[in-house]
Amino acid sequence: MSPAQASPKLQALLKDFQQIASMSGYLNHAFDPPQLRLFFTLYGRVMVASPEEGLSLTPRLQAWCERLSVDLRESSSSAIMPPQIQVSTPQTLPDGRDYLVATLTFNTKVTDTSYLRVRTAVLAAYQEAVKMREAGFKLEDKVAVAVETERAQVEVISNSGEPDKSSQAATDPNP
């Protein structure tokens, strides 16, 4: 008797997940009909000016990984198993530039019908890794400032019932 073959839908899902993983990592898999088991590796890389700067950013990269891990679990309704995190020491590229890299490994299984939440969570995680690789923590800092500004404005509005003109003037780049 031959082993059960993966459905065309599972094979198509595998190709989709492989494309997502290629953004910043890779994917191993196993067909276990009616399921597809997925084993992801995601890289979060940050370019740094020196090994010393890399060492100082290590806790921040660890925190970024932990936040990403929580997001993966929550967005997938815990279909993704808790990721394992490993942050390297600063490394030097052959061209002399230094970088810091974190590796997240995680796994899940999907079926023909239960893949959408996992796909959405994995896609968001890999997109975050690409943003980190392209902009480092600079982009994250700008987003944090924008979020804090928005929260302050919402707090002023909720306390008074009306927008506060002074807080708008202070945060509006075009008065």
Describe this structure in words.
The radius of gyration is 21 Å and the shape is elongated. By secondary structure, the protein is an alpha+beta fold. Strands 1, 2, 3, 4 and 5 form a five-stranded antiparallel sheet that branches. The termini are far apart. The protein has helices at residues 8-21, 51-75, 116-135, 137-160, 165-171; strands spanning 25-32, 35-48, 84-87, 91-92, 98-110. The chain has five helices and five strands. Helices cover 51% and strands 23% of the residues. The chain folds into two domains: 8-134, Threonyl-tRNA Synthetase, Chain A, domain 2, CATH 3.30.980; 136-175, no CATH class.
- Kindly state the percentage of residues in helix: 40-55%
Question: What is the N-to-C order of secondary-structure elements (H for helix, E for strand)?
Answer: HEEHEEEHHH
Number of strands: 5
> What would CATH call the architecture of the largest domain?
2-Layer Sandwich
Q: Total helix count?
A: 5
- Reading off the top of the CATH hierarchy, the class of the largest domain is best stated as Alpha Beta
Task: Provide mean pLDDT, rounded.
Answer: 82
Whole-number count of domains = 2
Determine the N-to-C terminus distance.
75 Å
Instruction: Quote the CATH topology of the largest domain.
Output: Threonyl-tRNA Synthetase, Chain A, domain 2
Radius of gyration: 21 Å
How is the main sheet built? 5 strands, antiparallel
Structural class: alpha+beta
* Content of β-strand: 15-25%
Net shape: elongated
In the predicted model, the low-confidence regions spanning at least 5 consecutive residues are 142-149, 163-175
